[in-house]
């Protein structure tokens, strides 16, 4: 008996020791211990671990269902090793995480979908699940937590491009449209049919919105970007691309890590400071406008940004003044969350139904894709053994120490009246979900309540939510919207109402719209004037003589305001010549309209109206060509294969003349040959690509650029014109280069 007791105590001691070494561990499947020793969190906040790799692997995104449960996207196949071999295997999945004992920590997980290829986004919409599998966008019905009928929404959603630059996001906005990062289309299910409509191309990884419905996003090297106007308002004119109203950089890219981190271009001058710390973001992603209503005053609509390469999360403060937005670092020199744990890889942030911020921590060593990873970073990761940190992952929760979290309602049991009440919740997630569930219920008994809300004042955009519930219920009328415009004192509500009024443009309503426009101009409000200038387009087509003077008045009032002038250019789509001839526009608008007419004559569309899929960048093309042509003999890692081909990594032919390298690829090489002082007596010869009609000069450039990025000590460049010259310089003899020719020929001539 005593022996058994001692054995039990010994096992318990080992368990405690393992928890100390690891930092966190699941105990009895219910509670997690998480050490904050490696994390510095802004005063007044707590960081809690609510799920880890015992329940999930490589999480990249999540959403909550109508019961408040987390559904997590697990992109397990991403960069499974330093060579990225095997990433297209169907190892991804979507799992449902539950907190069954209600202690705030997930204690159960079940797979909803598996065998997915690099899944990267999901959204609970229309009572089902929208998700990405490989290049395709699917919608699946949910029946008792199991997948039901599947509908292919878009077969080319993530076609082309590198996984780092493939479409993602899937965020339902207040206007009932689903927007994406890194894709120029938006989606909506209306009257049983999926709609796909052109929108502006935004960001790289992650997308978010404010209470008004403006969109925010970023890319690797830009902390935060955003639109000054609501989506799709300033792109109506297909032959004019706005440059001042959308995709604006909002803040500095400065970053303040706690320690030296391994970043892709750390060897380049200016990337690191004198202490070896990263100076500016190089992998920013997953922005979030906080709308949870459970943080202290001053935090509402702050933007939080993931910086996984520096193991931190930034907090920036939005400053919206009239129709332009800026942002600034919340606390200069400090980050909201910063860690010395180099495995901390926050890649996405989400508002939760309880008011907390949920952090998706991929928690892995490699976050740079093979197409872009430099030899410098490869060596850094290997030396720190960060390439061995695989198949981990965490979901963390940020909460305020001072404020309580919101109770999470069960939307599956909520009545229509209860849902209407939630449109006034301080928690934006609850307002958003109430809006969508009300539309799904199709209960028109609440229409009068919604109309009353739409006319009322509320700082939380409740009136706007009400308008779009009415929109989703097909319950909007010209009379209702006119009353909202007339009675509302909130410019933001009026801006949305003006956009919704466009569909009601008929000859019989021209006089009423003219009266409304005159009354709105008298308010002398910049936001109202801006959205009026864009919303008059369908009315202008009915009677340009009635509305051109209105637009001219707006133009003269904001003659030097570039955003307004771009809005006018969008609103004047199809009426440019008439305006130029009759309204004596200012130089700014005249320039825009003249450019538009020239583009129309040349049939040069805004690129968003041309692109259907993401373009594959040159380095990704180079990687694919290298793997299909070169890796067979030289190895996927470029280290060569015994008795088949010498190594490329560290080779003087990779680190030397680019024209020599191009010539080798074009004309081939016959042995024997020395590489790094070692003689390779190979019986075969490297085949030439010269006569391969499927390989262009640019393809050769792409292969070389990939090798320079992945294998060279210091990358060099070459142009397609250079390759063309080397194509024409055929070696004497049998047309295949020998070592003697490689050494004697001056390839730089």
Automatic annotation (TrEMBL):
The keyword Flavoprotein does not apply. PROSITE patterns: CYTC. Keywords: Heme, Iron, Metal-binding. InterPro entries: 6-blade_b-propeller_TolB-like (IPR011042), ARM-like (IPR011989), Cyt_c-like_dom (IPR009056), Cyt_c-like_dom_sf (IPR036909), DUF7133 (IPR055557). Residues 617-711 form the Cytochrome c domain. PANTHER family: LARGE, MULTIFUNCTIONAL SECRETED PROTEIN, LARGE, MULTIFUNCTIONAL SECRETED PROTEIN-RELATED. This is C-type cytochrome. It comes from Fibrella forsythiae.
